[in-house]
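Sequence only, no structure available. Ideas?
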Amino acid sequence: MVQISPRQQRLLLSLARSAIAARLGRGELLAKPEEAGVWDQPLACFVTLHQGEELRGCVGTLAPHYPLWQAVEKMAVAAAFEDGRFPPLSPSELDHTAIAISVLTPPEPIEARGEDELLAQLHPGLDGLTLDYGRHHATFLPAVWDTVSDPKAFVAHLKVKAGLSAHTWSDEMRWSRYGTLAFGEDPG
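Reply:
I predicted one. Tokens follow.
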């Protein structure tokens, strides 16, 4: 797993917040830190927005397409304005919105010939899980275990998120797991 110091975490969170604020016309976009660092590495990430305990947006990528600083900017703006589950963030909401960033490890395929075999390989609380099946795709970050702690329910909810029945199973389904280094602002 990539190492990100507390100082680097704060810088990345500030970068995410400034990207959203700039899009709202409430400030300037922070420049990429000039010193070399983790932000120069191409890494996959998700940016999640909460208002209190309520999800307000979550967008990311499973593959590293950009240096981390640029991925954080893009995913922050997408979480605030392009998550189809929510209306775009308004200027009045920004001060009441907490930002979290999850930096992903590379995905690891899981071979399973049946749901019981899949469930036996999961590490609740640690694994993010991705499902690919034909035109159906979905992922859950490891943080979802906080609300769906039972592995069978976790997999069922992921299938539903992908547009499938909770009881669907096919040996053609492709599963992969990943870890995250997650950090964020205090939701208070």
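The chain has two domains: 6-104, 108-178.
Hope that gets you unstuck.
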